[in-house]
Amino acid sequence: MDEARRVVLRSAGATGVLAAALAAGLLKPERALAASWNKAAFDSKSAVDALKNIGAANPQETGEIVIEAPQIAENGAVVPIEVTSKLPGTTSLAVLIEKNPFPLASQFRFMDGALPFVKVNVKMGESSIVRVVAEAGGKYYTATKEVKVTIGGCGG
Amino acid sequence: MHRRDFLRLLAFAGAAGASLRPGLSAAQAAAELYDLPKFGNLSLLHMADSHAQLIPTYYREPNINIGVGAAEGAPPHLVGEALLKHFGIKPGGILAHAYTYLDFAAAAQRYGKVGGYAHLAALVKRLRASRPHALLLDSGDTWQGSATALWSQGADMIGAQKRLGVDLMTAHWEFTYGAARVKQAVDKELAPIEFLAQNVKTLDFEDPVFKPYTLRSVNGVPLAVIGQAFPYTPIANPRYMIAEWSFGIQERRLQKLVDEVRAKGAQVVVLLSHNGMDIDLKLAGRVRGIDAILGGHTHDGMPAPTAVPNGAGRTLVTNAGANGKFLAVLDLEVKGGRVADYRYRLLPVFSRLLPADAEMAAYIESVRKPHRAKLEEKLAVTESLLYRRGNFNGSFDQLILDAMLAVKGAQIGFSPGFRWGTTLLPGDAITFEHVMDQTAITYPTSTLSELTGEQIKTILEDVCDNLFNPDPYRQQGGDMVRVGGMTYSCSPNAAMGKRINDMRLNGKPLEASRTYKVAGWAPVGEGAQGEPIWEVVSRYLRDKKSIAPIQPSVPRLIGVEGNPGLA
Lengths: 156, 567
Hints:
The complex is a heterodimer. Chain A folds into 2 domains: 2-31; 39-149, Sandwich (Immunoglobulin-like), CATH 2.60.40. Helix content of chain A is 22%, strand content 33%. Chain A is built from 5 helices and 8 strands, in the order H-H-H-H-H-E-E-E-E-E-E-E-E. By secondary structure, chain B is an alpha/beta fold. Classes of the chains: A alpha+beta, B alpha/beta. At the A-B interface, helix 1 of A face helix 10 and helix 17 of B.
């Protein structure tokens, strides 16, 4: 384990990775800078509205989006969710936590040639379906995974 | 059932039927139980969840261990006669006593105590005499569960593991000594024992914290053992104690490692697991290339493995009971680069049949000597059987609840659904050591809180879902929180939020918005204040002197009539 590396990067803060991606030109700065973000979608109070507002009202179910998330969250305040799209020509990925007060947690747009892979930490107040929507070839696709949030204790 | 499995079971039942005829000397009886014919060319000895019980104890198996969904009626969710019937074990004998709660007090008096590291050591030596290459694998929960383990931060158990000849281990409760202590023990004290955990990584960069697997050549056979720590440690136990580490099942990484060790030439791949048997059974059906999962956590003393088919072949899943009561023997016949056949036995460790190993006995004496007066303080005498294990309550938990309600002046008591903790027979003295056997944890704080009826319902539903969620990957392997003062009904097969009903205090329904005084202990959050639970219980016992027969309060169960996990 490289403790020095850990300290340096920790002090760079959580935006470090995102900043690196931006610098590399792989990610449009929408999310980071909030300049032209989809306010209506992020302000939506239900998953259905959020989907509508990102233009993906009826996405098609697919097995080509891989969601890695814990079965039970270790800490509801920071739930790591890793998404990979195997859909050719993926141009965007959105992560929704259906039970959150504002379900749309993040949306990423990819330049040509960027690997459609993201990892986000989201806050979850209760057990919920995590829904990912991918845009590829002008069409929307979706996959889900359930993450349980529990008060803990009493194990074993 | 495949014909071969049936034949293996028959062989096992034959041994079980030997039943230790009356008049047999201890040596003859031991020979019948413990002299296993040699089989195959690779042997693994396995134990799990000794919970730091260095000296022999009693341990009563549960009479409620309900399986829901696909788990209903299948191992490990079988109790009493249903378990005996499933595994073809003759009722009334020494093995029936070892594997079930049936007629427990009388049978325990007849057959004596179980476990104890000196007796375990004698059995390990006996087996190694015929299987000199055998490795001894320990699924963990070894450093916690007794006063001396707590006071030495697990050091007494590390000494015992080394003398026992443990080769490899993984962990769960070990982590409750905190990250620094675990690293110190693993890096500086544990050698030559290897500590394996593929599913523990740092939160920030996902660096592995421990060695994930080991490759050994055993009797000329290349073997890989991968370690799997308890995946829900930061949820079931205080996260702040291991704040920088992340756990989880990590199925994808496990598959990668299995493929990796196979590519490196391993002909046998074993997962040394602390998942709990339900998770192991599901995992066995999804991850390919594992020959056997030697498991613990759920304390299921299963007499035979469950063979789980998966794409590539099949995986044997075992669980080896708790408190040092059992030692498992897996003999494998490896031919043409693969496992061709196997024999498995889960041997009960009866201290009367296995003379104590002198070296281990001397070591245990040296561990206990400085604390003897404190450990052996007689607090009270119990008039009835005191035990813990069971889905909803045990009489020892009821005693803890009674003590909390009385000492704390609470209306309702909550006691965690731990599965460790030993058993006392009617007429036994309850010593301080026995109280510690039920309570020795690093976060023993007792608490008194004001909770609304709605909050109480939320807590019960949450814990109940950790036990009865139909998806094993969403279970945590503990039992239901023990509840004192109030009554309720429970529908294990219902959905979360609908399982707990009819909550009553003194016969009157709980009100959602009213607050109630609730006593509890073992808070997983940081900063709670209060006396350690063992002080609360000890004071209560000293005051009472004699504990009248206890009937543990169990919720009214709905929709599980005829479930083979309920007797």
